Amino acid sequence: MSAVPFLDLSRQYKTIKPDIERAVRRVFDSQRFIMGEVGKRFEEEMAHKTGAKYAIAVASGSDALYLTMLGLGIGANDEVITTSFTFFATAGAISRLGARPVFADIDRRTFNLDPQDVERKITKKTKAILPVHLFGLPCDMAALQAIAKKYGLFVIEDAAQAFGAAYQGSPVGSLGDAAAFSFYPTKNLGGAGDGGLVTTSSKPLAEKIKKLRDHGQSKKYFHAVVGLNSRLDEIQAAVLLVKLKHIDRWNDQRRRHAQAYDKAFADIPPLERPSAPKGMRHVYHLYSVLTSKRDEFAAFLAEKGIGAGVYYPIPMHLQPCYKSLGGKPGDLPVSECVSGEILSLPMYPELSGGDRKKVIDAVQTFFGRKKK
Ligand SMILES: Cc1ncc(COP(=O)(O)O)c(C=O)c1O
After folding, report:
1. pTM for this one?
2. Is the CB of 236 under 6 A from ligand 1?
3. 256 and 145 share a domain?
């Protein structure tokens, strides 16, 4: 049996190669590589797609988070509540500001922040809630917004994995005070290198972030605030503009693969499938399942040539770099349990029907629904 890679970006590239090459060549012909017309057009299209009034392209998703919080005035002595079950960048951005990440637990069915635990973690120092739409599924934004309103907190979406997802019909990127996207190449909307973007409908915040990403300049060589260099290259913007034309279809393809997996795994009770609560459009950056036999399951899939990955093996509150925050095993039981049981299966638009069948057959075989 031939292998099914966990992810194969070359399949997508083959379908858009001439358009990408043309778009990149145009940037070279212009010799304008930074802060030009292509980037501006990309920002306009991203604002339109997310329903936010403003989109500010930056150098990475990590910087999008950092610059958003910097723009909101979050810094030393402030606390930001976020999920422990995420990629490090979410927490790292809070720490880079000198603020303290406060980790809340997750809901086992969605892998996203548990609003009740968020409310328990609020103190006088809390300034913001930073929900992560993990694996492409929006968080319970109504509950989180209600808490934010009650305590006067900002809500910043980490939408790095969720471009194209929607909550009650509204796209992610328009659900909080601001949102951060990542265009890391493996993301649903991925560039040809690093890239990121902030969306917001607040004009003052948008203007502040525009300055901050360009050394704090409001006009050339006039530095209104201390900023940094975090701009998106024209080449990245050109690649992303090509991909934007296809992203809705690609996300629909991911959703169809997820439906097929869901159907095939429905009668395997030891395998918990990812759930998408009513009113949420999941875009399946990853399709992740839970099983108490995770490591054995992963080894079996590897033996069958099926790619799989553990996202994420160690929750943030137990990371060595956060030891000083005092987190210990048992603090966030759901995040800890999920870290030990989760496994992500191949999920990308270009999976063929044959690939999907191989994945399904291997899963069914491991759980005794088919002969080994
Ligand atoms: C949840 C989450 N937040 C933030 C980031 C940071 O994005 P980037 O890699 O573009 O800095 C990523 C991706 O890497 C992510 O998965």
Report:
1. 0.98
2. no
3. no
